[in-house]
Write a structure and sequence with these properties.
The complex is a heterodimer. Chain A is mostly helical. Helices cover 74% and strands 0% of the residues of chain A. In chain A, α3 crosses α15 and α6 runs parallel beside α9. In chain B, strands 6-7-8-3-9-10 form a 6-stranded mixed beta sheet, sandwiched between helices. Chain B has a 5-stranded antiparallel beta sheet with strand order 13-12-11-14-20. Classes of the chains: A mainly alpha, B alpha+beta.
Chain lengths: 296, 370
């Protein structure tokens, strides 16, 4: 934000004109619009069921309770199993972490090869990979299921990791390729003459320069994979499901009273990791997206 | 320390031939400058010598050994790049020693080489900085340090000074020359700056359109350019190229120039005439360096060779040590380099002299020197 203000420049920018007031009012409305649902989710998750039934939607809880959170974590019923989200949360971690790591690393190597070790047909390969980014999830479901079956990975966590890696490579390659285009080829030439080979150059020169784009890719991939529902619901079974699928099952298992506080707590737990990633790495995200376009 | 030879070298990118049958050889310890306008193939040639690009045909020989199939890292060369290509993530120390560390050179040896180079280039205080914390001139030094540290057979410089400001460029040029004198290593240096070429080289290859136009010592290239391209490219201000006709008058060859208004300026030659005689009567291009001219009072050179003439002066440019006067001869703007105190005023008629022993002639059709 400070950057924006400085770029407008001088005292004029800090004076409160009518236009600026209007700007702040509109921004305030947007903030309100986006934060209200979160507010409702948080207060509802801290209310007792009676409180929810008797009080208004926007009212703060008359008595704060963490019971729904505890239940969501280790007692909520997913289908017939009543062990909470705990296990599914770790499933998602076990899927997301390796899938993010592998797809990012492969994207980096692909980008490196496509820009610094250009070969005949590199452009065609890159175009095909780009094309892969635009294939809708639904189209690949059947072939993917068949492939996982053949590999003996159907219904397993490693199967889901593979699916996410394959689907993510298109994006990660695109990110890294576009970033590496801005790194001068002379660096690679210099290192070649210095005696470094393909991987030495990659590990010791290219990768250390890639921090901004690694952050971007990791955030992007982590969000995609953590929030994925379709692949999760299609290619996993029983105790191996990711948290998104479990959340759906909690919210949709209707036995008697609808436990809104439990649903809200579960939803927040499911969304928390991606939220945290943005909070901690968001700065780098913006910086990485614009890197390369501006020198220095 | 090594000799370098290029034999019948051809390079094609698809259909376009960027290097057409390049041939030359330099001895151990020579300073070869490849000079030419952009797109002439000089950088490609350097990259092929380095092994960073592969030749389509022909051979590169270092120390009389063909290195066509030798990987760049095993050619024992070092290269300084136009953009310096310093590794941004490493300190100056690590930049310089990267090559040695990759090659697993013993630690003491690396340290020794580093301190030798740091002292030579006076960059010891900079060793722990990152490239982003250095000025242009300092980066340039570090880039040279990285090349020097390995003590290679041949140094390759790819337009190393083109990113520096004018003053620093002259300083670094002197330093590179000193370095060459001290180390005596063979150097191949690419530039588009003909002044750099003449000041640094022991031998120059002037290139255009993938062809070596002339390969010789700086003095020969300056005094006896092989064709009108070399003549106009090398030297600043450029050599004046004036359309003329060679005529035989009373047993002496004259260059006749038709001035505007139909008058004819006839300049008697003062050169060995054997080769020129064959062209008597035909159209030629007369090449005269600006310094071949003088004003009436400060005629320089052999009295026998001096010819006098008058001309209207279009413009004068005092440069300090001397003065450039632009005159029009035969429809061509001619630059003359005169004494700073010459009595020449713009928009008036001045009396000039020209040393015809310095004249060179080119074929009017193909531009080759006669």
């Amino acid at each position: 934000m400070t950057d924006v203000r400085f770029s407008l420049g001088g005292a004029r920018a800090t004076r409160m004109t009518l236009g600026r007031w209007l700007l702040f009012i509109i921004l305030g409305l947007f903030v309100f619009y986006f934060l209200t649902p979160l507010y409702v989710m948080i207060i509802t998750s801290l209310k007792t069921l009676d409180d929810i039934r008797l009080g208004g939607l926007m009212n703060p809880p008359s008595q704060i309770t963490f019971e729904p959170w505890i239940k969501a974590w280790n007692g909520a019923c997913v289908g017939i199993q009543c062990e909470g989200l705990r296990g599914y949360f770790w499933n998602s971690v076990k899927i997301a972490v390796p899938a993010v790591f592998i797809s990012t690393l492969l994207g980096a190597i692909n980008g490196y090869v496509l820009t610094k070790w250009r070969f005949c047909g590199a452009n065609v390969i890159f175009a095909l990979m780009l094309f892969g980014c635009f294939i809708p999830f639904q189209v690949v479901l059947m072939p993917m299921a068949r492939m996982l079956g053949l590999l003996g990975l159907a219904g397993s966590i490693s199967g889901l990791v593979l699916v996410h890696v394959v689907y993510g490579i298109g994006f990660t390659t695109l990110f890294f390729r576009n970033y590496y285009v801005t790194i001068p080829d002379e660096l690679v030439k210099a290192a070649t003459i210095d005696g470094a080979g393909f991987f030495t150059i990659f590990w010791r020169i290219i990768l250390p320069l890639s921090i901004p784009i690694i952050v971007v890719t990791v955030i992007w991939q982590f969000t995609q994979i953590w929030n994925d529902f379709l692949f999760g619901v299609s290619f996993s079974a029983g105790g191996g499901q990711p948290i998104t699928v479990a959340l759906n099952n909690i919210v949709n298992s209707s036995t008697g009273v609808k436990e809104y506080n439990l649903d809200m707590a579960s939803a927040i737990i499911a969304g928390l990791p991606t939220l945290l990633v943005y909070v901690f790495a968001g700065r780098y995200f913006i910086r990485g997206l614009t890197a390369g376009s501006v020198k220095g | 320390m090594a000799s370098l030879e290029i034999r019948n070298l051809v390079k094609r990118f698809g259909e376009t031939e960027v290097l057409k049958d390049i041939n030359f050889a330099i001895d151990d310890g020579e300073f070869l400058v490849l000079v030419g306008p952009s797109g002439c193939g000089k950088s490609t040639l350097l990259n092929i010598i380095a092994g960073l690009e592969t030749e389509t045909r022909g051979e590169v020989l270092i120390d009389e050994q063909s290195v066509n199939d030798v990987h760049p890292k095993d050619r024992d060369i070092a290269m300084v790049f136009q953009s310096y290509a310093l590794y941004p993530n490493m300190t100056v120390r690590n930049n310089i020693t990267f090559g040695m560390r990759v090659r697993k050179t013993p630690k003491e040896q690396v340290e020794q080489a580093l301190s030798r180079v740091a002292e030579l280039l006076q960059i010891s205080p900079l060793l722990d900085r990152k490239p982003s914390q250095l000025s242009g001139g300092q980066r340039q030094r570090v880039a040279m340090g990285r090349a020097l540290v390995r003590d290679p057979k041949i140094f390759l410089f790819d337009e190393p000074l083109s990113n520096l400001d004018a003053k620093l460029r002259v300083e670094m040029r002197t330093e590179i020359k000193k370095l060459h004198q001290r180390l005596g290593t063979t150097i191949v240096y690419v530039t588009h700056d003909q002044i750099e070429a003449i000041t640094l080289a022991t031998r120059i290859a002037v290139m255009k359109d993938g062809i070596v136009q002339q390969f010789d010592t700086p003095q020969v290239i300056y005094d006896q350019p092989a064709n009108s391209f070399v003549a106009s490219f090398m030297g600043s201000p450029a050599m004046n190229l004036i359309p003329a006709r060679l005529l035989d008058s009373e047993g002496h060859l004259c260059a006749e120039i038709t001035l505007e208004g139909g008058e004819v300026l006839s300049l008697k030659l003062h050169l060995p005439e054997e080769q020129l005689r064959a062209h008597a009567g035909s159209l030629v291009v007369l090449g005269l360096r600006p310094e071949a001219f003088g004003d009436q009072d400060h005629a320089i050179g052999d009295r026998q060779a001096i010819r006098q003439f008058t001309s209207r002066v279009d413009m004068t440019e005092p440069t300090g040590p001397d003065m450039l006067a632009m005159i029009n001869i035969g429809g061509v703007e001619v630059t003359t380099r005169l004494h700073a105190t010459a009595d020449i005023r713009p928009d008036s008629v001045g009396a000039f002299s020209v040393d015809m022993s310095k004249a060179v002639f080119f074929d009017a059709e193909n531009g080759n020197r006669i």
